[in-house]
Amino acid sequence: MIRGKRPAVVPVVSVSAYRKEKGTELTISVDPEHLNLKKYPKGPITIKWSLDTTGFKFSSNPDLPAIQFTSEGWEKSFSHLTLHDHDRVATVRDKNCDGDAFSYNVNVVEVATGFTAVLDPIVQNNDA
Questions:
Q1: Burial level of 106, CB count in 10 A (0-12/13-18/19+)?
Q2: Domains delineated in the chain
Q3: Which terminus of the chain faces fewer neighbouring Cβ atoms within 10 Å, N or C?
Q4: Which residues are 24's β-sheet partners?
Q5: What is the pLDDT of residues 35-64, one digit of tens each?
Q6: Beta-carbon neighbour count of residue 57 at 10 Å?
Q7: pLDDT tens for each residue of 61-94
Q8: Does the global pTM surpass 0.85?
Q9: SS3 for 37?
Q10: Is residue 123 within 8 Å of residue 67, measured between CB atoms?
């Protein structure tokens, strides 16, 4: 029997963006809205946001990044954002060990219009 490293566990946040009808505001939803990492092993973990709706992409604007942590001290827990798959997947590395909860914004752009929509969910880190 060959033994190797276990595959990394990656929590995924599904992101949807839509308009209820033409001319209305853009709407975003995420699942889960409160990403609780206490059910994952302590220590570094990659979080993946996956945009499930066609016609939208994550913002690649450095002034309005796809995932923008807004809680004080976030820099100590999270690495820089990386976009993949034509700006439809975003990943961030999280130290996942301080027990803190961090608010963040998800910034999504409608490709056809360039309009941006924002939502503010939470990441709950595991305890040290």
A1: buried
A2: 12-19+27-124 (2.60.40.420)
A3: N
A4: none
A5: 999 988 889 999 999 999 999 999 999 999
A6: 21
A7: 999 999 999 999 999 999 989 999 999 999 999 9
A8: yes
A9: helix
A10: no
Distance of CA 107 to the CA centre of its chain: 9
Q: How many residues belong to the chain?
A: 128
Tokens of 112: 């056809």
Amino acid, res. 122: I
Structure tokens given for 70:
């807004």
Q: Are strands 122-124 and 34-36 parallel, antiparallel or unpaired?
A: parallel
Contacts of 100 (CB under 8 A, 6+ apart): 71, 73, 77, 124, 125
C-alpha–C-alpha distance, residues 54 and 51, integer Å: 8
Instruction: Report how far residue 57's alpha carbon sits from residue 111's, in angstroms, rounded to the nearest whole number.
Output: 7
Distances (CA, A) of 127 to 19, 42, 43, 100: 38, 7, 9, 8
Beta-carbon neighbour count of residue 65 at 10 Å? 20
